[in-house]
Amino acid sequence: MLYGGAAAAAGLAGVGAAWFKYEPKVFSPAQTTAVESSFWGLSFDTPDGKPQPMRNFAGKPLLVNFWATWCPPCVEELPLLDAFYQTQKTKGWQVLGLAVDQPSAVRKWLQAKPLSFAVGMAGLDGTTLSKSMGNMAGSLPFTAVFGSSGALLHRKTGKVTADDLAQWVQLK
User: Fold this and answer.
1) Is 85 within the bounds of a domain?
2) How many CA atoms lie within 13 Å of 7's alpha carbon, on the beta-carbon side?
3) Could you tell me the mean pLDDT of each successive run of 10 residues in the chain, 172 residues long?
4) Which domain holds residue 133?
5) Residue 27: Cβ-neighbour burial (10 angstroms; 0-12, 13-18, 19+)
6) Alpha-carbon distance 52 to 121, whole Å?
Protein backbone atom coordinates (compact mmCIF):
# COMPACT_ATOMS: atom_id res chain seq x y z
CA MET A 1 0.00 0.00 0.00
CA LEU A 2 2.87 2.33 0.83
CA TYR A 3 4.45 1.70 -2.56
CA GLY A 4 1.14 2.32 -4.34
CA GLY A 5 0.72 5.66 -2.56
CA ALA A 6 4.28 6.67 -3.40
CA ALA A 7 3.75 5.69 -7.03
CA ALA A 8 0.52 7.68 -7.20
CA ALA A 9 2.19 10.73 -5.65
CA ALA A 10 5.08 10.46 -8.10
CA GLY A 11 2.63 10.14 -10.98
CA LEU A 12 0.70 13.22 -9.90
CA ALA A 13 3.93 15.15 -9.49
CA GLY A 14 4.86 14.15 -13.05
CA VAL A 15 1.50 15.27 -14.40
CA GLY A 16 1.84 18.57 -12.54
CA ALA A 17 5.34 19.09 -13.89
CA ALA A 18 4.17 18.30 -17.42
CA TRP A 19 1.25 20.74 -17.09
CA PHE A 20 3.58 23.45 -15.81
CA LYS A 21 6.05 22.79 -18.61
CA TYR A 22 3.43 22.93 -21.38
CA GLU A 23 1.05 25.49 -19.93
CA PRO A 24 0.87 28.39 -22.41
CA LYS A 25 3.11 31.23 -21.35
CA VAL A 26 1.36 34.53 -20.79
CA PHE A 27 3.34 37.44 -22.16
CA SER A 28 3.29 40.96 -20.81
CA PRO A 29 2.07 43.67 -23.21
CA ALA A 30 5.68 44.84 -23.67
CA GLN A 31 6.83 41.32 -24.60
CA THR A 32 3.93 40.87 -27.01
CA THR A 33 4.65 44.22 -28.65
CA ALA A 34 8.32 43.25 -29.09
CA VAL A 35 7.31 39.95 -30.74
CA GLU A 36 4.88 41.73 -33.05
CA SER A 37 7.39 44.43 -34.01
CA SER A 38 10.14 41.97 -34.84
CA PHE A 39 7.78 39.63 -36.71
CA TRP A 40 6.60 42.28 -39.17
CA GLY A 41 10.23 43.12 -39.99
CA LEU A 42 11.06 39.54 -41.04
CA SER A 43 11.22 38.06 -44.51
CA PHE A 44 10.94 34.41 -45.52
CA ASP A 45 11.86 32.88 -48.83
CA THR A 46 9.22 30.99 -50.75
CA PRO A 47 10.04 27.33 -51.43
CA ASP A 48 11.36 28.54 -54.80
CA GLY A 49 13.72 31.03 -53.15
CA LYS A 50 11.84 34.30 -53.75
CA PRO A 51 11.77 36.76 -50.83
CA GLN A 52 8.46 37.16 -49.04
CA PRO A 53 8.61 40.11 -46.60
CA MET A 54 6.11 40.02 -43.76
CA ARG A 55 5.35 43.71 -44.28
CA ASN A 56 3.49 42.63 -47.45
CA PHE A 57 0.96 40.90 -45.19
CA ALA A 58 0.43 43.93 -42.92
CA GLY A 59 -2.96 45.62 -42.64
CA LYS A 60 -5.12 42.50 -42.92
CA PRO A 61 -5.76 39.63 -40.52
CA LEU A 62 -3.17 36.87 -40.87
CA LEU A 63 -3.14 33.26 -39.74
CA VAL A 64 0.44 31.93 -39.53
CA ASN A 65 0.82 28.17 -39.33
CA PHE A 66 4.16 26.53 -38.51
CA TRP A 67 4.30 23.09 -40.12
CA ALA A 68 6.56 20.45 -41.65
CA THR A 69 6.17 17.73 -44.27
CA TRP A 70 7.30 15.10 -41.73
CA CYS A 71 4.68 16.12 -39.13
CA PRO A 72 1.45 14.04 -39.51
CA PRO A 73 -0.91 16.46 -37.68
CA CYS A 74 0.59 19.34 -39.69
CA VAL A 75 -0.17 17.82 -43.07
CA GLU A 76 -3.58 16.63 -41.84
CA GLU A 77 -4.65 20.20 -41.00
CA LEU A 78 -3.36 21.85 -44.20
CA PRO A 79 -6.50 21.05 -46.29
CA LEU A 80 -8.64 22.66 -43.57
CA LEU A 81 -6.40 25.75 -43.56
CA ASP A 82 -6.53 25.87 -47.36
CA ALA A 83 -10.34 25.70 -47.30
CA PHE A 84 -10.39 28.46 -44.67
CA TYR A 85 -8.22 30.65 -46.88
CA GLN A 86 -10.39 29.98 -49.94
CA THR A 87 -13.57 31.02 -48.11
CA GLN A 88 -12.12 33.91 -46.11
CA LYS A 89 -9.69 35.61 -48.53
CA THR A 90 -12.49 37.76 -49.98
CA LYS A 91 -13.10 38.98 -46.41
CA GLY A 92 -9.47 40.06 -46.09
CA TRP A 93 -7.99 37.01 -44.36
CA GLN A 94 -4.51 35.86 -45.28
CA VAL A 95 -2.80 32.57 -44.45
CA LEU A 96 0.93 31.93 -44.37
CA GLY A 97 2.34 28.46 -43.86
CA LEU A 98 5.86 28.69 -42.41
CA ALA A 99 7.63 25.41 -43.10
CA VAL A 100 10.10 24.20 -40.48
CA ASP A 101 11.62 21.95 -43.11
CA GLN A 102 13.99 21.71 -46.08
CA PRO A 103 12.98 23.62 -49.24
CA SER A 104 13.36 20.50 -51.43
CA ALA A 105 10.98 18.50 -49.20
CA VAL A 106 8.44 21.33 -49.20
CA ARG A 107 8.62 21.78 -52.99
CA LYS A 108 8.09 18.03 -53.49
CA TRP A 109 5.16 18.00 -51.05
CA LEU A 110 3.54 21.07 -52.68
CA GLN A 111 3.84 19.49 -56.14
CA ALA A 112 1.74 16.58 -54.90
CA LYS A 113 -0.64 18.66 -52.75
CA PRO A 114 -0.68 22.32 -53.84
CA LEU A 115 -1.88 24.98 -51.41
CA SER A 116 -3.61 28.20 -52.44
CA PHE A 117 -2.11 30.23 -49.59
CA ALA A 118 1.43 31.57 -49.27
CA VAL A 119 4.20 29.30 -47.99
CA GLY A 120 7.48 30.53 -46.52
CA MET A 121 10.60 28.69 -45.48
CA ALA A 122 11.30 29.19 -41.78
CA GLY A 123 13.75 26.29 -41.47
CA LEU A 124 14.98 25.46 -37.99
CA ASP A 125 14.70 29.15 -37.07
CA GLY A 126 10.95 28.62 -37.23
CA THR A 127 11.11 26.76 -33.93
CA THR A 128 12.77 29.75 -32.26
CA LEU A 129 10.26 32.12 -33.84
CA SER A 130 7.28 30.04 -32.73
CA LYS A 131 8.71 29.91 -29.19
CA SER A 132 8.88 33.71 -29.18
CA MET A 133 5.15 33.68 -29.99
CA GLY A 134 4.28 31.42 -27.05
CA ASN A 135 5.00 27.90 -28.31
CA MET A 136 7.22 27.13 -25.34
CA ALA A 137 7.55 23.42 -26.22
CA GLY A 138 8.60 24.26 -29.77
CA SER A 139 6.20 21.61 -31.07
CA LEU A 140 4.37 21.41 -34.38
CA PRO A 141 1.90 22.33 -35.59
CA PHE A 142 1.67 25.79 -34.08
CA THR A 143 -0.65 28.56 -35.24
CA ALA A 144 -0.60 32.28 -34.48
CA VAL A 145 -3.37 34.70 -35.44
CA PHE A 146 -2.59 38.37 -36.05
CA GLY A 147 -5.27 41.03 -36.37
CA SER A 148 -5.37 43.67 -39.09
CA SER A 149 -3.60 46.03 -36.67
CA GLY A 150 -0.65 43.61 -36.54
CA ALA A 151 -1.38 42.55 -32.96
CA LEU A 152 -0.90 38.90 -31.98
CA LEU A 153 -4.44 37.92 -30.98
CA HIS A 154 -4.32 34.17 -30.50
CA ARG A 155 -1.98 31.19 -30.57
CA LYS A 156 -2.49 27.44 -30.52
CA THR A 157 -0.14 24.51 -30.20
CA GLY A 158 -1.54 21.42 -31.89
CA LYS A 159 -3.84 20.63 -34.75
CA VAL A 160 -6.31 23.34 -35.77
CA THR A 161 -10.01 22.46 -35.85
CA ALA A 162 -12.95 23.95 -37.73
CA ASP A 163 -14.19 25.32 -34.37
CA ASP A 164 -10.87 27.12 -33.86
CA LEU A 165 -11.15 28.77 -37.27
CA ALA A 166 -14.77 29.77 -36.64
CA GLN A 167 -13.69 31.53 -33.43
CA TRP A 168 -10.60 33.15 -34.93
CA VAL A 169 -12.44 34.58 -37.92
CA GLN A 170 -14.31 36.78 -35.42
CA LEU A 171 -11.05 38.30 -34.13
CA LYS A 172 -10.02 40.38 -37.16
Assistant:
1) yes
2) 4
3) 42 38 40 73 96 96 98 98 98 98 97 98 94 94 95 95 95 79
4) 26-168
5) middle
6) 9
